Amino acid sequence: MSRIVFVNGEFVPYEEARISVMDRGFLFADGIYEVAAVLGGRLVDNDAHLARLVRCLGEIGIENPYPVAEWAQLEEELVKRNGLVEGLVYMEVTRGVWERDFPFPPADVKPTVVMFTQEKSITGSKLAESGAKVITVPDLRWKRRDIKSVALLAQVLAKQEAAKAGVSEAWMVEDGYVTEGGSSTAFIITKDGRIVTRPLSNAILPGITRQAVMRLAEEQGLTLEERLFTVEEALDAAEAFYTSASAFVMPTVEMDGKPIADGKPGPLTRRLRALYLDMAQATNSGKMG
Ligand code: PDD
Questions:
Q1: Cα–Cα distance between 42 and 49 in angstroms, integer?
Q2: Ligand 1: centre distance to CA 242 (Å)
Q3: All structural domains of the chain
Q4: Whose Cα sits closest to atom 20 in ligand 1?
């Protein structure tokens, strides 16, 4: 099956898709993006992803090109046209095409909209069995990390460091505290069983998987603590994990070459992953089962 992408209102073969060299996404990273998982051909927690997309557009003053229901239909159509069973839908909206100039273009310039799918085995991840290793790197990003901006250079550099070190993720650190992963939310579990993650602020992206995992943990009567934690505390934790639409709940077993606890995925993390998988498998276009 040939790959179909969505560009500015049309479904086109990937080879034929075209974006202008004057696109502000290309010139200024002037745009936002969203990534949602697909399981069994259905989008996972999609209402929450679309809500974040709409909020991020509003934060940077790009007019939302489609009502939420139409976004969802377009995503579903793209999934169908690509025969995607398990993987990701990537969506990007930029401020459109205009001669290179920093201020916003005239109001009648339409945003550029691009969507594509990627096949990925998320549920059968081998890494989730063995557990992921991470390194820590300085957080070099700007101060509005709550916006899912396509300006990802700091994360590209962080994740290249991780790749060079032969590990899966880089946890970014600011003032001694972990902010989040290069493309994920960071969690630790203390020796007395408290699940700790950083509170929402401009310092991190409000993860959709984070939100779902916290809700699931709460339903199970587990103790959640939204507060900052240090690298030292993470190294001394009973368990650690990270969450994202592309990894779900990923046990984290080593940091900067040192094992976390016994260096194996922890029991509470495994439980949270199983709970998340159950929830994701039960979802239908974002509606919780
Ligand atoms: N990244 N923090 C950052 C910096 C991220 O880029 C992401 C997601 C997350 C997790 O958010 P969510 O649970 O909503 O996926 C946290 C996506 C997957 C990406 O860039 O590919």
A1: 14
A2: 10
A3: 4-119 (3.30.470.10), 129-283 (3.20.10.10)
A4: 183
- Pocket test residue of 47, 155, 198, 205 for ligand 1, highest count of atoms within 8 A of CB: 205
The CA 246 to ligand 1 mean position distance, Å, reads 8
Note the pLDDT of residue 283.
74
d(C-alpha 253, C-alpha 236), whole Å: 12
pLDDT digits (tens, 9 = 90+) for 138-165: 999 999 999 999 999 999 999 999 999 9
Angstrom distance (rounded) from CA 45 to CA 172: 26
Q: Are 238 and 214 in contact (CB under 8 A)?
A: no
Average pLDDT over residues 260-283: 96
State the pLDDT at residue 35: 98
pLDDT tops 70 at residue 263: yes
**pTM > 0.85: yes or no:** yes
Q: Quick one: average pLDDT of 194-205?
A: 98
The partner residues of 38 in beta bridges, in order of sequence, read: 43, 87
With a 6 Å cutoff on the Cβ, whether 136 touches ligand 1 is no
* Angle between helical axes of 46-60 and 68-81 (0-180°, round to 10): 120
52 Cα nearest atom in ligand 1: 14
Q: Is the CB of 245 under 6 A from ligand 1?
A: yes
> Measured from the CB, is residue 180 less than 6 Å from ligand 1?
yes
Q: What is the pLDDT of residue 284?
A: 53
Q: Are 262 and 255 in contact (CB under 8 A)?
A: no
286, pLDDT greater than 60: no
Q: What is the DSSP string of 115-136?
A: EEEEE---TT-HHHHH-EEEEE
**Cβ of 244 less than 6 Å from ligand 1:** yes
CB 28 within 8 A of CB 102: yes
